[in-house]
Amino acid sequence: MTKSTDEKALTDIVKEMATSMTAEQSTRHWADDALWFDIPAFASRGLGPAKKMFDRVFSGFKSCDIDILEEDVKISGDIGIVCTVQKAKIVLRNGETKHAWVRQTDCFERRGGEWKLFHEHASSPAGGEWDGKIITG
């Protein structure tokens, strides 16, 4: 199945956010009133708290490689939702390497002709093993 122009635009934004290493780049497509829930017990409304958190977290990273393993895009009018399963390899400044699975939902609204993220929710599976597979049907 060929992606529509809007689906491609949204997946490109999500990939850009996943590969960013600065708060400015991570939130470039966010609406000013975005609501965000992240893996650590952290939530924010608006760009200021999110940017502060991103800058603090990224300052401890030497590198962060994200592989998007699963992706599902739904668009209805001016609303678009992108659900992804991501595998992260994070190298901290002290040389320690961490691996994590991340499930992320990014909700967009077309505002003034541009897609703007108005809600993001990221989580990491807690307890037990999960292989990253999504079961459907």
Estimated share of beta-strand residues:
over 45%
Strand order, main sheet: write it out.
Answer: 2-1-6-5-4-3
Shape: globular
Share of residues in helices: 10-25%
Uncertain parts: none
InterPro entries: NTF2-like_dom_sf, SnoaL-like
Pfam families: SnoaL_3
Domain SnoaL-like: 16-126
Organism: Labrys miyagiensis
Description:
There is one protein chain. With 137 residues, the protein is of the alpha+beta class. Helix content is 23%, strand content 50%. The protein is built from three helices and six strands; from the N terminus they run H-H-E-E-H-E-E-E-E. The protein has a six-stranded mixed sheet with strand order 2-1-6-5-4-3, with helices on one face.
